[in-house]
Design goal:
This protein is of the alpha+beta class. Among the domains are: about 155-270, Ubiquitin-like (UB roll), CATH 3.10.20; about 285-380, no CATH class. It has helices at about 20-30, 50-65, 80-85, 130-135, 135-150, 190-210, 270-290, and strands at about 5, 15-20, 90, 95-100, 105, 120, 125, 155-165, 175-185, 220-225, 245-250, 255, 260-265, 295, 300-305, 315-320, 325-330, 355, 380. The strands form 7 sheets. It has a 4-stranded mixed beta sheet with strand order 9-8-13-10, covered by helices on one side. The protein has a 3-stranded mixed beta sheet with strand order 4-3-5, with no helix packed on it. It is rod-shaped.
Length: about 400
């Protein structure tokens, strides 16, 4: 009795064949024969006929010729027959829109009646789509901002700030005294507002020490680069000095240049600078008037006479609007007066207190010359002070 073996067809829509042992071995040796590891039938979704059936059902559903209801996940299943048959799109501004197909929910417009609000412990009802990441977003954002502006950021540079003037009729700006300061670890992507505040805090102590705390509001200062271009806040306010710290590579890509320094100039208005000079001159004149009267020991008062020269130091600074030198003496702390020993002549008098009078000739004023190129300080020192004291001592 011959034994037959069944061999399936590649096209599962066609029946297989019962073959003898010789024919069965022949088909097994053919290169086009597909071997299967198990005798389990092939899944229905992999059959070509099943794919066509699925595509046919999809086309019918798109044309609205099927009665299968398509609902969103979590939707209420107790809908009316009319809604299931007609179908509508929810979430529109004009109300439900009648469509020939099934019910379709647009993303983000799910009915509140269908899905109950998600409850988070300790927070009460939350909108649909809320996750735990939203609660920590402000803290994470603040942390990322701090990391961007931290001193450990690789893209940082050095900025040198200078306080300068723009004299009338001059092309080149002039440095004010020695008001220069360098600040390191400045992020290259910093904005104009933050940069101006950082540089202002670094250089304002020198200004206060030189001008005796003359007020200089930050709003009165114009921040400019080395080409005299004013740097103003942008929208968004960032990368105000970034172009000075990057260079173009071979392929045009920008590359950061570590160890680079740029110069920022603080332009002080001429009117404010002149007001500072006037106040400084008045203060130093008052200091000289106080220094002219010195109280000695035991109530002896020493007054300066006109025929004695006082050791003076004059500070000549350019007057911007007047175009002449301004001579003003330094503070008493910077004046060093050397007194030589003087002869004292005794005169009998019934007066117990002794009063000596020393005269001082008027100081020679320097002739006003042309304006200096830069507002630098020049110091001129006169001769030493010679005191002639005529004292009246009380008799014992």
């Amino acid at each position: 009795m011959a034994v037959l073996k069944h061999m399936h067809n590649k096209d599962h829509s066609k029946p297989g064949r019962d073959l003898c042992q010789r024919c069965y071995q022949y088909y097994l040796d053919k290169t086009g024969t597909v071997r299967r590891s198990s005798a389990a039938p092939t899944q229905a979704w992999s059959l070509p006929g099943h794919r066509k059936d699925v595509q046919k059902r999809i086309a019918q559903a798109q044309r609205g010729h099927v009665n299968n209801d398509v609902q969103a996940v979590g939707a209420n299943s107790s809908r009316g027959v009319q809604d299931q048959a007609a179908g509508y799109v929810t979430g529109t501004t004009s109300g439900p829109l009648q469509t020939p197909g099934p019910t379709i929910h647009l993303p983000g417009n799910i009915h509140r009646n269908n899905i109950p609000p998600v409850h988070v412990q300790g927070r009460g009802p939350q909108p649909v789509g809320y996750t735990a990441a939203h609660a920590s977003y402000p803290a994470v954002r603040h942390e990322r901002i701090q990391q961007a502006y931290s001193t450990h950021n690789a893209e940082v540079g050095v900025v040198e700030v200078r306080m300068v003037l723009k004299l009338p009729g001059r092309v080149q700006e002039q440095l004010i005294h020695d008001l220069v300061e360098a600040v390191d670890h400045i992020p290259v992507h910093i904005g104009a507002v933050d940069l101006k505040r950082t540089l202002y805090d670094a250089v304002i102590p020198k200004w206060n020490a030189w001008t005796r705390n003359f007020p200089l509001p930050i709003e009165k200062i114009a921040m400019r680069d080395r080409l005299w271009v004013e740097l103003k806040p942008r929208n968004p306010d960032c990368d105000v000095i970034a172009r000075y710290f990057f260079k173009s590579g071979k392929n045009g890509a920008l590359t950061f240049k570590p160890g680079t320094k740029t110069i920022i100039q603080f332009h002080v208005p001429n009117e404010l600078y002149n007001a500072m000079l006037d106040k400084r001159e008045a203060d130093e004149t008052a200091d000289v008037a106080v220094a002219r009267r010195v109280t000695g020991r035991e109530g002896v008062v020493v007054e300066l006479d006109d025929d004695v020269e006082l050791s003076m130091a004059a500070d000549f600074t350019v007057g911007i609007s007047k175009g002449k030198k301004r001579a003003r003496s330094l503070s008493p702390a910077s004046q060093q007066e050397d007194f030589e020993s003087s002869d004292i002549e005794e005169i009998k008098s019934p007066v117990k207190s002794a009063k000596s009078k020393v005269t001082k000739p008027p100081a020679k004023r320097s002739k006003a010359g042309s304006s200096l190129r830069t507002p630098r300080t020049q110091t001129h020192t006169g001769s030493k002070v010679h005191l002639r004291v005529e004292a009246t001592l009380s008799e014992c």
